Amino acid sequence: MNRINKAELNTIKEKVEAQLNGKTRVLVGYATCGIAAGAKPILEAFKKYAETNNLDISIEQTGCVGLCQYEPLVEIVTDGDCKKSVLYGNMDAEKVLEVAESHLKNGTVVEKYVVKTIFFDKQERIALRNCGGIDPEKIDDYIAVDGYQALAKVLSSGNPDEVIQTVMDSGLRGRGGGGFSTGMKWKLARTIVPDADQKYVCCNADEGDPGAFMDRSILEGDPHALIEAMAIAGYAIGATQGYIYLRAEYPLAVKRLEIAIGQAKERGLLGKNIFDSGFDFDLEIRLGAGAFVCGEETALMVSIEGNRGEPNPRPPFPAEKGLFGKPTILNNVETYANIPRIILKGSDWFSSLGTEKSKGTKVFALGGKINNTGLVEIPMGMTLREVIYDIGGGIPNGKKFKAAQTGGPSGGCIADDNIDIQIDYDNLISIGSMMGSGGLIVMDEDNCMVDMAKFFLEFTVEESCGKCTPCRIGTKRLLEMLEKITSGNGTMEDLNEIEELSEYIKNNSLCGLGQTAPNPVLSMMSNFRDEYISHVRDKKCPSKVCTDLVQYKIIAEKCVGCTICKRICPVDAISGEVKTPHVIDQDKCVKCGVCVDSCKKFKAIIKE
Amino acid sequence: MAMKTCAIPFEGTAEQKESLLKVIDKYREIPGALMPILQGAQEVYGYLPIEVQSIIAEEMKVPLEKLYGIVTFYSQFSLTPKGKYKISICLGTACYVKGAGEISKKFQQKLGIESGGVTPDGKFSVEDCRCIGACGLAPVIMINDDVYGRLEGTDKEVEDILAKYQEVSE
Predict the structure, then answer these.
(1) Any idea where the domains of chain A sit in the sequence?
(2) Chain B residues whose beta carbon lies within 8 Å of the beta carbon of residue A71
(3) Which pLDDT tens digit goes with each residue over A435-467?
């Protein structure tokens, strides 16, 4: 394969378009979640069908379109006309035969398998623009959707300052955590050490925030977008080497990115003298090894250097002294994914989307107790209500919305009274939460907010690197206080102490992990104080989650004395004669809940 | 602090050592070589006992205690062998909200081991893991590289999943 120049980008684009022109395309969602849901036999079944029936169609694997609830997903675009696109959900190999026979052969859509949803209607896809639309393992597919045009444009302009100005003017802020201006970050790295002999461009692809998976989706669905953006960043700040720090928990993302980097090198889009401009840029993947703290920028860099991933105090900031002691920029995958579009369509276009201080879009991973789980990209400023009820389709099983957690273990919860808040960086902070990397976990009335706070603290205790005392010991003490409360031994003073200690940890920890670790507890306590008080004062868990505070009881009127529960109880805590109501000995009961499941017929055993 | 070592005797083969030396040679010269070398070593041996760490320390001319510090820092590096089938229960937020904690307990009960343990025949190990990013299918578990999603956590479901791996090897 030969190196390509700028003009050839258009030739390749035309060639791919000509190949697909008028052709029916079958796009099978083939990211980790699609494969887990069974996409492999589906892809094979379509291929086999096309072969045996001699159909001249294009069957392609793509990344994830984001509607996880209906995986495995198949999109059929008839005659290459995107207006004639149909999305089939919950597919399996048998349904494939039916769809192929009816839709591909006779042109009749199989309505009963079509996903009808407004999930996509309110979305605005920039970072996810190609996820689900192209084959991530084919560089030509990316070039056909104007891939590498932005890189060609900046290299032929010959003006790195202009690139930085465009990114600054666009108003793009970091999509991974604090929301720092991306253009400002680049400008500092370009100017702060004028005579630096080497600089680095890094990508944080160590998506550690539990409940967020947009970066995985981009890596699996559109890896070339990241490569292109990092090369642009390299040109802008004056770096010739980039590193992508990628989670080892994402094997498919690693594989696709490796393939993409290989292709880019082959075509001369990475390496020496890119587009004959004299600009050199190379990329390397470094795998993480499962440490959440390595999402913190200084920790990430020392981990790439081959050390324990412990953070360092700032300043000096990485723009001055980063990886291997050289000026470095670090952005996450979603931030980079916006860059090529900003370069091609201009900063005005990007900044016309969003709110005053938060421009563009944000990807959220909708999860938890919500009907349409998946990845959604929305313009900044959309209300949480629209995200949950319009795009997300509301709460399953007729349950009541209780809270949404954003920002993962660093963020906070948004309760019912704030559901009409417009989502942007500053609004979320004003109500004690934060944007974070974009996990949005919905909780319903069955989730206990003391238990959830405990869950997040267990996470931070486990992931605290131990370097500084407030975080290492403080979070542990905080967790112990919460455990005291969920075991029914809490006092009202504990609540005050939790707040006091939280403030201390926030103010005195070395890095972002510790500084934000108490946020979930504080936010849940301020939004759901009553719930904490009932744990402490009434020794009750209103959501019936905290095992030590619930009891199992048999309702005598409903019990027919069938003895099933008595026989199934692992600790012989249930007694009673045949055909007479049974009772549970509370001293013996270990609260395993097996009896409740065994009494589905009569529903005589309750948890309270 | 006492050094964590593995009670199971080390049984590295000459072939494994040869593969390890190849890994070391591949990365020796790159900046920040230790992480990829340790990852490669764990792929060769399945875990990183002190014997393996010693070889790397000697080859790379770094103190063993530095290496040990790195190995014990990252959760993916293991000082003890894992089961032939490594069951990882995702305890990310989305999974937890949907009852992953209970599923973890079910697997531990069925296999008679605690989280982080290995069955006596070395076939299964169970561990709670960090979010694997398949939140849309929550709750999910991973057995080696296979992902199982939308679990309900019933006894039968857990038994059925385990049964698949019993048949493979027997």
Answers:
(1) 8-62+74-113, 139-351, 361-444, 449-536, 551-607
(2) 136-137
(3) 988 999 999 999 999 999 999 999 999 999 999
Architecture of the domain whose range is A139-351: 3-Layer(aba) Sandwich (3.40)
Answer for the pair A82, A120: CB distance below 8 angstroms, yes or no: no
In the predicted model, residues of chain A with pLDDT beneath 70 are: 1
Whole-number Cα distances in Å, A168 to A161, A181, A185, A347, A423: 10, 7, 9, 8, 21
- The region, left, alpha or beta by phi > 0 then psi within -120 to 50, assigned to residue A59 is beta
- Domain spans of chain B? 14-73, 85-169
Pairwise CB contact (< 8 Å): A367 & B97: yes
**Cis peptide before A315, with omega less than 30 degrees from 0?**
yes
Please provide the CATH number assigned to the domain covering A551-607: 3.30.70.20
Q: Which of A457, A459, A594 best tests the B interface by mutation, with the highest count of B CBs <10 A?
A: A459
Return the CATH architecture of domain A449-536: Up-down Bundle (1.20)
Residue-wise pLDDT tens digits, B3-35: 566 667 788 899 999 999 999 999 999 999 999
Closest residue in B to A72 (Cα–Cα)? B137
Nearest CB to B147: which of A32, A207, A288?
Answer: A32
Which chain B residue's Cα is nearest to A305?
A: B32
Contact residues, chain B, for A439 at CB < 8 Å: 93-94, 135
Any A CB within 8 A of B74 CB = yes
- Contact assignment for A289 to B39 by CB distance below 8 Å: yes
> Tokens 């660093």 label which residue?
A410
Q: Is the peptide bond before A340 cis (omega within 30 degrees of 0)?
A: no
Q: A216 CB near a chain B CB, below 8 Å?
A: yes
From the list B35, B92, B147, the residue facing A211 with the nearest CB is B92
Q: Which residues of B1-32 are buried (b: 16+ CB within 10 A; e: fewer)?
A: eeeeeeeeeeeeeeeeeebbeebbeebeeeeb
| H helical segments located in A328-395 | 333-345, 347-351, 384-385
Rounded CA-CA distance A243/A248 in Å is 15
Task: Write down the CATH number for the domain with range B85-169.
Answer: 3.40.30.10
The fold of the A361-444 domain, in CATH, is Ubiquitin-like (UB roll) (3.10.20)
Assessment of whether the complete model's pTM goes beyond 0.90: yes
What would the CATH number be for the domain defined by A8-62+74-113?
A: 3.40.30.10
Q: What is the dihedral of CA A177, A180, A182, A186, to 10 degrees?
A: -120
Element holding A400 (H helix, E strand) = none
Residue with tokens 């939140």: B135
Q: Confidence band (pLDDT; 50, 70, 90) for B170?
A: very low
Closest CB to A210: pick one of B33, B39, B130: B130
Q: Which of A286, A441, A447 to mutate to test the interface with B (most CBs of B within 10 A)?
A: A441
Any idea what the Cα angle at residue A303 is, between residues A301 and A308, rounded to 5°? 130
Considering only the beta carbons, identify the residue of A71, A307, A441 that sits closest to B97. Answer: A441
